User: What shape does this take?
Amino acid sequence: MKKSPRLMLPVLLCVLMMLPACGPTLTTATTACRAFCPISYSASKDTPETVQEVRGHNAAWGALCGKETPARCGGD
Assistant: This one.
């Protein structure tokens, strides 16, 4: 039984559309971890509010990205 070329094209297109689903995907957290770094601050020169906000940012970053700061962010 010979397959119809008319039927093969839609099947081929469906298969090609599903291929990207097999590859690695980036999550929002992964993207954020690549884009942002922990923030440094001065406990003696910054306001207490600034220090609190920076610590909050750094805590959120650590929870999403892990505690180890990458070299591009000034880590080891």
About this structure: DSSP finds three helices and no strands in the chain. The CA atoms of residues 27 and 70 lie 18 Å apart. The first helix runs from residue 5 to 18. The chain has a mean pLDDT of 80.
